[in-house]
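Preliminary data (for renewal application), magnesium ion complex.
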Amino acid sequence: MNPTTSTYTLDIQGLRITLPGTARPVLDGVDLHVAAGETVALVGESGSGKTLTSRSALNLLPPGATVEGAVRVGGRDVLTMDADQLRALRTSTLAMIFQDPRAAINPLRRIGDFLVESVTLAGGTSRADATARATELLQAVGLDGSALRKYPGQVSGGMLQRVMIAAALMGDPALLLADEPTTALDVTTQAEVIALLAELRERFGTGLLLVTHDLDLAAAVSDRVYVMYAGRIAESGPAQALFAQPRHPYTSALLASTPRLEAPGGRLAAIDGRPPDLRQELHGCPFAARCPLATEICGRRTPEPLRAPGLPNHRAACHHTDRLEGSPVDA
Ligand SMILES: Nc1ncnc2c1ncn2[C@@H]1O[C@H](COP(=O)(O)OP(=O)(O)OP(=O)(O)O)[C@@H](O)[C@H]1O
Ligand SMILES: [Mg+2]
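Predicted structure:
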């Protein structure tokens, strides 16, 4: 890799995706990057475009999609790669962890064969080297070498997700994409898998793009967060600052509607209304119809994701970010 091409492992710029039969782009001007070794969370309601954004890193987009903008992984443009180049990318630079591990593994193959073949089929690695690496990685994810001889049906869902994480690390990727990697697991196992991802990041320096609608999870593990709404980035910033001092009314509303463990029985504020339908053209801010701060300009002009006042690394696409409670300009 040419180190001068990009300092980002993943660098998405101005990504706009239009699907057939829709009135507006499903992703509209998404900018997102993950630096080397960074953990970045992508959060937002169902249908906001999180999966499409993460899959763009593999150029895995729906048939008929029209794509504008740039998607670079390790400085290389993935939107122009052919199938062979994408396959090579997937066995080296980038790996994906899926939501449901049982759907992503052949139940008739032993776990060891699955791990080993994930790298040997691409060539360049011997079976002995791959087996040694698989054993080491199984230990790193808290399993012992005996798992190599088992079939997927003989281990629990949590163990299988650990196997998938080990599989993702087999090619020593610079970037892991994890789209809701813990939703198929019980709460205790979720916590273990997440702790494991954080530990592996420390150990192997792997960048992680974590797609989730669990804000507590995003707050617990990520360095930075992107909040998506209706195919756009509503807000982005350092995780701590973004959750402590959201600069977009949508982020505030999401945080207010999240069940918090520390306040059992507390009232949950649901966000009134629904995100705009893809068959609907949009004028102005996509959140305006649901926003408590909306004024005339919000229905007329689309807000750009601008730097929040006083917060250099924090951006919010809102005309009224300065009217949010706790705003630095209020102080
Ligand atoms: N293959 C497809 N064909 C048509 N529409 C699609 C396709 N894939 C996604 N969409 C639409 O694109 C929008 C964004 O989808 P996406 O799957 O990225 O959302 P998401 O944020 O991942 O949601 P969830 O939290 O439910 O996984 C949705 O409105 C969805 O219906
Ligand atoms: Mg999704």
